[in-house]
Specification:
4-stranded antiparallel sheet; alpha+beta; 3-stranded parallel sheet; 13 strands
Length: 247
């Protein structure tokens, strides 16, 4: 039996792949509904997402998931504009001149941001002359940005972005997120970012994933609090089973 912690999109995709591979799975969802940030409200018209989400249109992994669950034809492509809220004012930050005008950056940090993005986007190897060091195990976004581009750039640009997504855990977000962020901006130009929305909201994908996994394998209001290996090897696999404690 495979266990998935959390019934958000990532958890449901993992459970669907495990099911497709022919293995039993159980999903522990701490809330009363699955979907995570893609949970939706029913309205008199179209369903509305609880946390408005979009898909990176250029991400092949996302397109593969949509195709595998029969909803790829419902992906709508648009150019999404980006802005930052600072000092009670919304500042567009797509074009270079908009970033220069943004109070959280300025000329020096705008140049630092450009250099950092280019360095992270370049493929690197383990050699000493690699443009940027490989992802460090245990290194956070704050440590990576501060060490490479200065504390001012992190405080003025990345810290609000990370905090908006992770709240009080912003200081613990690993450096891998930084590389994913740069990859997501690959087709981000002056006119905004190429993004995708599902016709009918992301609830369309959530419903398709639940159909494959099955309602019976999802435990709601159940939070995993501990995982312990058993002392005996499994007679069928020779591997130790793990005991899952949930509340």
């Amino acid at each position: 039996m495979y266990t998935v912690a959390g019934g958000g999109l990532a958890g449901l995709v993992a459970a669907a792949r495990i099911t497709a591979a022919g293995h039993p799975v159980r999903v522990f969802e701490p809330g009363d509904e699955v979907g995570g940030r893609a949970r939706t409200y029913d309205t008199a018209g179209d369903p509305v997402e609880r946390f408005p989400e979009y898909l990176i249109g250029s991400n092949e992994s996302i397109r593969d998931v949509l195709s595998a669950h029969g909803v790829a034809d419902r992906l709508l492509r648009r150019r999404g504009r980006t802005a930052r809220y600072h000092g009670g004012i919304v500042h567009p930050v797509d074009a270079p001149w908009e970033q220069l005008a943004y109070p959280g950056l300025g000329l020096r940090n705008t140049l630092r941001l450009r250099r950092l993005e280019r360095a992270l986007a370049e493929p690197n190897d383990e050699s000493d002359d690699s443009p940027i060091s490989p992802i460090g195990e245990g290194r956070t976004v704050e440590a990576a940005v501060t060490g490479r581009a200065g504390a001012d750039l992190y405080a003025g640009w990345f810290e609000p972005l990370v905090r908006a997504g992770f709240g009080d855990y912003a200081g613990e977000v690993p450096e891998a997120w930084l590389h994913e962020w740069v990859e997501s901006r690959a087709d981000h130009g002056r006119g905004g970012e190429s993004v995708g929305y599902l016709d009918g909201s992301l609830g369309t994908l959530v419903a398709a994933l639940v159909d494959q996994v099955g309602d019976d394998v999802i435990r709601h209001d159940a939070r995993i609090v501990d995982v312990e290996p058993s002392t005996d090897d499994s007679p069928s696999t020779g591997k130790r089973d793990r005991s899952i404690a949930a509340i």
